[in-house]
Amino acid sequence: MKQSQLFGKTLKDTPKDATIISHQLLYKGGFIRESTAGRYYFLPLGLLVHQKIQKIIKEEMDATGAQEMITPVMHPKQLWEETNRTDSVGFELMSIKDRSETEFVLGGTAEEMLVDLVRRFQVSYKDLPMNLYQFSTKFRDEKRARGGLLRMREFVMKDAYSFHGDEKDFKLEYEKMWQTYTKIFQRMGLKTVVVESDNGYIGGEYCHEFVVESEIGESQFFTTEDGTYAAHEEVARFQRDSKNLDEAEKKMEQVSAERGNTMEDGVKLHDLPLWQQMKDLMMVDEKGNIILAVVRGDYDINEVKLAHVVTAYALRHATEEEIREIGSEPGFISPVGMSESAAKAGKKIIIVGDTSLRTVKNMYTGANVKNQDLLNVNIDRDYTLDIEADIALAREGDLAENGKPLFAKKGIEVGNIFQLGFHYSSKMTGATFMAEDGSKQPYYMGCYGIGLARTLATVVEKYSDAKGIIWPEEVAPFKVHLISLKEDEKAEKIYKELLENKIDVLFDDRDIAAGAKFADADLLGMPYRLVVSSKAGEQIEVKKRSEDKAELMDLEEVIKILKK
Amino acid sequence: MKQSQLFGKTLKDTPKDATIISHQLLYKGGFIRESTAGRYYFLPLGLLVHQKIQKIIKEEMDATGAQEMITPVMHPKQLWEETNRTDSVGFELMSIKDRSETEFVLGGTAEEMLVDLVRRFQVSYKDLPMNLYQFSTKFRDEKRARGGLLRMREFVMKDAYSFHGDEKDFKLEYEKMWQTYTKIFQRMGLKTVVVESDNGYIGGEYCHEFVVESEIGESQFFTTEDGTYAAHEEVARFQRDSKNLDEAEKKMEQVSAERGNTMEDGVKLHDLPLWQQMKDLMMVDEKGNIILAVVRGDYDINEVKLAHVVTAYALRHATEEEIREIGSEPGFISPVGMSESAAKAGKKIIIVGDTSLRTVKNMYTGANVKNQDLLNVNIDRDYTLDIEADIALAREGDLAENGKPLFAKKGIEVGNIFQLGFHYSSKMTGATFMAEDGSKQPYYMGCYGIGLARTLATVVEKYSDAKGIIWPEEVAPFKVHLISLKEDEKAEKIYKELLENKIDVLFDDRDIAAGAKFADADLLGMPYRLVVSSKAGEQIEVKKRSEDKAELMDLEEVIKILKK
Lengths: 564, 564
What we know:
The structure is a homodimer. Chain A folds into three domains: 3-236 and 407-460, BirA Bifunctional Protein, domain 2, CATH 3.30.930; 253-389, YbaK/aminoacyl-tRNA synthetase-associated domain (YbaK protein, Alpha-Beta Complex); 478-563, Rossmann fold (3-Layer(aba) Sandwich). Helix content of chain A is 24%, strand content 29%. In chain A, helix 2 runs antiparallel to helix 5 (167-187). In chain A, strand 27, helix 11 (488-500) and strand 28 form a beta-alpha-beta unit. Chain A is α+β, with helices and mostly antiparallel strands. Chains A and B meet through strand 1, strand 2, helix 2, strand 3 and strand 4 of A and strand 1, strand 2, helix 2, strand 3 and strand 4 of B.
């Protein structure tokens, strides 16, 4: 393509809100433009990269035997009601009605659509496993779009859905997708860490994020140094160290406690360690249930783990009024006697305690009364839990279950794979296959997603320098940037010869200064720069974008290298 | 691909609402499934054809120098307000609000989006012309979806938008697109008629539909036998033949007329020809303006032409009450004295007459009073028109302006090309380029669309027989259908050899009866059927889907033919 005809000019400045490298470079290079927040135009150069990413994903998915198809974007809302997903407020669903008042949602993911399709066919055990995927536009009504292509409201996702006769067969596919994703990202030059993570609104029991380490990433995760364990902070499991378990249980006593409401105020007043204090958090779920969560004072409560344990979609902190109404007092909450106080107030409370409460003796905490604390509180003896579970946030330095210390990292989530199990097939009528014994059985499912635009931005985050982008070859919009320095006739001939050899080339045929051409070549980042100039004579100056040194070569030699 | 693993089984029956061939065959063959009315799943086979159609369009568009890019699907409604398109009720627009109450429309076409993008760049005359196109999902809230893929509510459209310095340059592009479209459809085996048509909600002054003749098509058009003129019935121009112009103008008289309200009642009562009667139609536009349209009695009023003439978005027939309120009478409407009657009633009326009113002397019509008619009414003498224009529907047999008789035809509209002129660039602020003299000028524009799914269905309409589809090679999901008749090992070898030779092949490796395999091959319609059987020995039975005779050949020979 001739650059004089290319739509999308390079610029020197970026918009104020472009704070991250990929946003800045993709804007300056004329790869993308924002329409409204989180919705982007892909200009010709940007779309070329997007298409190359799509091609890589398609090749690797097809190689696994997965089959491409496509669903409508507008999903009948009724299907989402079959699985209760319209209730999951955490999910940024957009609804729309047509002229006949039929309700639709704009697809965010397509589990229901795929099940609704597959259940129309008489699927037998012989047809399984089956993995169906699509590239289609997805919509998320995100609270805040950010960072150019990193968190969008509208984007193309490759989403795949697999159907299996049983868990064992599913696990083979899960492993296959794990390997395939690793390879897909490798081909784009991205090294991924595979991180256990939270299923969120997707459902199912476990899932993994493919994360590219990056300081600007939103995925916070923990990993051991050797990588044998990696998990999103929302789900990371870790060992609770024992504190004073050899201490004898002392008699519980209530003491006057003129103090502020913070944990530090308690530490100061009683002159006892933070870990000996209880941390009590009163929460309310989407149905109005009140939950008291308790952890050892030096840990924090992990609200995602807590929500899973109490099977809530969304949790919020209780208001001071709500705390008093149930018979407690802000800053002085305690599990001791709490169920009874609630019952007296005509209410119910669910007390959830972290396993860390078993690592300490003689804890101190509030007495559900203003300026009254309890000392020497011991689990089982002084209070009981409705649910005892892992509800604490891991911290850097905590030990993973395998005994190795955890390190905190940040990264960009570029893909994920989900076990769905029977989550959808059990909720949707007729989502069954005929088993070998002739009986009807629900399918065991998984799903697998990759966001294309975010992946594109991640490549730029990883491959750039002060001058611009350095595209890895497989995703570069053009392999070659051919620059004519006032040698247009000669360059034109070389351009044609490259095209005849089926080499992708962007030909800078513009009548502008050499410096501007070089700057653009560096900004746009094609892997090879070829310069035709009087200085080089009949030869061509060849430079890789990723290297500093340039070489003079004959055209024949250049073509040989480029066709490799 | 092995058929045993292909998702999407063939069926013998079709849903009741599948009344047209393409719907039936695409359903039976497992190419598509309906999600909700007008919204379809493309199963693997269907998507393959869709992708081949996309590939052909892309190749031909790229060859013209057009550049692919993509816009978001959700367009800010504000842009559509800039061009007043939210008012054009004829357009089936879907609106949606996001969580911050910002309004969007789901893109039906993308003129505003393209202009909004291009106006951000400092476009100079050197950058023009420029043709930008995309493949993207479009949404139309159609009153009635019909016919499988023929009228959908959600579909992928290739839409292109061109920008020019002046009309002359635009006309070159329009011609180029005309040729390109003809070639695109030819490659798919479709012969298109290029038909003048109505711009509808798109705007601009003229446009052309690419129509494939078909009895089930919704496009009604007229064409001369030699094809030198072809126009949609909504816009077809034709000559009005003179009737009794040599007759002297007689004195107008009002007579008692006890008759019914139809044209036939008038003919009977006065025993005069239908063509001598006036046909008067009272209409109301979207702003409430009342319009009286008048034509010669043997013609009908063309409401699309009428709407253009009075620049209305939507016209409806006036109610009997409205007719009386303005001082007339249903069944006895007449232009004579109508403006005065309306003024007396405190209202305004626009009287629009067809040019055919000049081909008759001494017409008869109502007298705006029940059971009173006027005889010997003559234009200019007895009444005047506010607008005199072409507002009549052509009929088969009428003469085109070139003097040749018109034939009525039906067809499927697979593409269209539009002159937009300054329609968008004049309405949208800053939609300018820098001209050679340094001044800012609005771009002169055109746009060009092809609906992919409808094109796909049209191919099936044209290429099928009683047994199934007969895909033209360029759009076939697979070039070859390889069938093993209990010779799986041999067939497997041949399958691999074909794949190694990069020949697309669907391999029927299923353990089912030969008859069922042959029936599927005929239904699915791959261009070549290869049968491996003990009967054929080491040879392969080769049959083209479009031909009856089969031949035995060696594999080597088969590959030679297929690689052609």
